[in-house]
Design goal:
With 289 residues, the protein is an alpha/beta fold. It contains 9 helices and 7 strands.
Length: 289
Amino acid sequence: MAHDHKHSHHHEDIDWATMGPMLERNARLAAPQNREIATWLRTWQPEPALVADVGSGSGSVSFLLAEIFPKAEVIAVDPAEPLLERARARADREGLKDRVSTFRAELPEGIGELPLADLLWIGRALHHVGDQEGALAALAGRLAPGGAIALLEGGLNQRSLPRDIGFGRPGLQTRFDLADENWFTRMRAELPGAKAVTEDWPTLLTRAGLRHAGTRSFLLDLPAPVSDDARAQIVAELARRREMHEETLDADDLTTVDRLLDANDEQSLHHRPDVFLLSVQTVHVGVKG
């Protein structure tokens, strides 16, 4: 989805016991998409020695990067200690403690202590920083010569239902998109040190002293009927967005959403045969030197 909001700037307000498994399920579903992205990055970094996953959450992408780059040491970087604990536990379970480690840091304040990396993966973390341009410059400073930043920002919002679902007003997901954009604008404005910037990511990479080497979008296409895992994720995501936008969606749309979330309703997400999952992620690559 275009804005997954996986990292609030109020970390203490988040129930990580609930969000951790949800983020990991989402990463499992998106694994084919993320694997395609990581494989594409071998164009610039075929054998990096050190990879840092900035804004890693519980490290789902970190472990994928460790798989794609089998000779690399991978550092999962995140401000949320409960999520890093989950990453360490997984590294222990999978026998990867010697290759996957964690580093607790806010972006960009704690980034200066990171060792120089050959590849920095920044997956939807930059937009949670008030000064995105400054943060990108700080990240570029943590690249080894010839190193690359893979910046995942942009794309298209997730779709999971037809435009007309048979009840309520057609176009519910489009109205959710608008609510998301309004929420996102408020969130950005409230960030400490917030600075407005044109979100031209290739230009911002260039201003950070990097060479814009490529931009590409990647499709996740899970057609109906979806798996139980995908259906559960779609239900959880709609429930989360209903809570986010309860004050801004109109009464008719809230009634429609409640039907979609009602497991006892045959027209709900729990039972509909037409539920699918379609999203697009866009990645921009900048290379040092």
